[in-house]
Design a protein that fits this description.
alpha+beta; wza like fold; Outer membrane lipoprotein wza fold like; 3-stranded antiparallel β-sheet; about 30% helix
Length: about 250
């Protein structure tokens, strides 16, 4: 009876220890959830629209950018007045810009925003040339080691999936190249696309244009045996010590 009790206790304690195995794996998808693997958009259907809480920066030159061209022809780096400062898009959709004050920029593409600023700066400068950049765009990349992640800033408009993964350090040893989840927000919901980069056929998805606030999750391989042993090692040690103590008491008797 005592041996049976020991066995039951042993199994119970092991089950408690195993509860923590692979608990760092995120975004586990139930079997009934819809995963899009054949409807992946390789490029966004429309240009990104400036939104609330975005940060924008702009460069300004006069005479249609003549000074920039002259500077480049002389081996310079051009004029970038105002480009060192980020301006936050407020809740009302405006950004407080120098000389112009509040300017409604929400809902505009970067090109539309450039046209708007050129029109407004034309009141103060001759033939202004403006370039606008959204500086707050970024994606979150989980590289395949459980819950470890990297925030990658999108410095270019057409940054590809492969570029983002490379900037994050590539797919880690534990990562599954055939199960890369691109989690993208559409309105108030997020849709999950599954990308397979483990074969040559998957190269078509390597050029997929990522969008701001995407989650790129490279699913990690579960380490069942190793993590199980790590989790249960203290329990096994306790049980071994207890059994040894019981054996010594039996010998003393």
């Amino acid at each position: 009876m005592s041996k049976l009790l020991y066995l039951i206790t042993f199994v119970y304690m092991l089950s408690l220890g195993s509860c923590g195995v692979n608990n760092n794996i995120m975004f586990k998808t139930p079997k009934d959830i819809e995963l899009a693997s054949d409807t992946i958009m390789l490029a966004p259907p429309v240009d990104y629209l400036i939104s609330v809480d975005d940060k924008i920066a702009f460069s300004l030159a006069t005479n249609n950018g003549e000074a920039i061209v002259q500077s480049l022809s002389m081996g310079g780096i051009g004029i970038n007045a105002g480009s060192s400062t980020d301006y936050i898009v407020r809740e009302d959709g405006t950004a407080e810009l120098p000389l112009l004050g509040k300017v409604l920029v929400k809902g505009l593409t970067t090109f539309q925003c450039e046209d708007t600023l050129e029109m407004l700066f034309a009141r103060h400068y001759q033939n202004p040339f403006v370039q606008v950049k959204i500086t707050s765009q970024r994606v979150l990349v989980f590289t395949g080691n459980g819950s470890s992640a990297t925030v990658v800033s999108l410095t270019n408009t057409n940054t590809t999936l492969l570029e983002v993964i490379a900037q994050a350090g590539g797919i880690q040893e534990r990562g599954k190249a055939n199960t890369i989840k691109v989690i993208r927000k559409f309105g108030n919901e997020r849709k999950i696309f599954v990308v397979d980069l483990s074969t040559v056929e998957g190269l078509q998805y390597a050029d997929m244009i990522v969008q701001a606030n995407d989650f790129i999750y490279i699913e990690p391989r579960p380490y069942l045996v190793r993590e199980f042993l790590q989790e249960t090692a203290p329990v096994l040690s306790l049980i071994s010590t207890t059994l040894s103590f019981v054996a010594i008491l039996n010998l003393i008797k």
